[in-house]
Amino acid sequence: MAIPSSKIIVCRYDPVVERHHPVPELKVNYGVHVTEKNIEQLRKLNIACFPVRYGEQFYRDVVKRDPKLTILAYYADNLIGAIGCRVEENKLYIMTLCVLKPYRRMHIGRILLEKMLEVAAADESLTEMYLNVQTSNECAMAFYSQFGFEKDAEIRNYYRRLEPNSCFVLTKDLVAFRQQRAAAAAVAAPIAAPAPVAPSPAASD
């Protein structure tokens, strides 16, 4: 399992400046499920974070899916980040992962991805996790590489209104991920002390 680095990645596509002070600890709530009541908040979050717009069907499908496939990050009752996935046969596709600009560099995106990896690892039917990243988005590629995602292919003319219009497909082998987790857990497990040996009964005279 790839161990996420603590090194701060500064994306040249993101105007947020690098932090030179300790990351503030926020009490972020990751336990709220997406519903009809808060789907509009997710829509506004995506509009604020992405250069593309998702249609009505996208959000209707999000509400209908297994709630574990959408993880929301709330701070002070405000939705500040989210990750959304869908299952495609035996693969888990990351549709969106975003955090509002004022809350970036606070490990919220990292925690969202880690939580979704937990969901993926728990489903034995899933063999791969993947997403599409614009070829110019070096920040995103560096971020996902810390979690063991690798470039698998390039798709040209993937985006209609973005330049460059091509994307890389980043994939993570979930079977290997589970095996690595199991091996790490076995190493970390405490070794049971041997049971005490009862003394032999004294021989009778």
TrEMBL record:
Coiled coil: none annotated. It comes from the Eukaryota. Pfam families: Acetyltransf_1. Keywords: Acyltransferase, Transferase. Residues 29-175 form the N-acetyltransferase domain. PANTHER family: N-ALPHA-ACETYLTRANSFERASE, N-ALPHA-ACETYLTRANSFERASE 50. This is Acetyltransferase. It comes from Paratrimastix pyriformis. The lineage of its organism: Eukaryota, Metamonada, Preaxostyla, Paratrimastigidae, Paratrimastix.
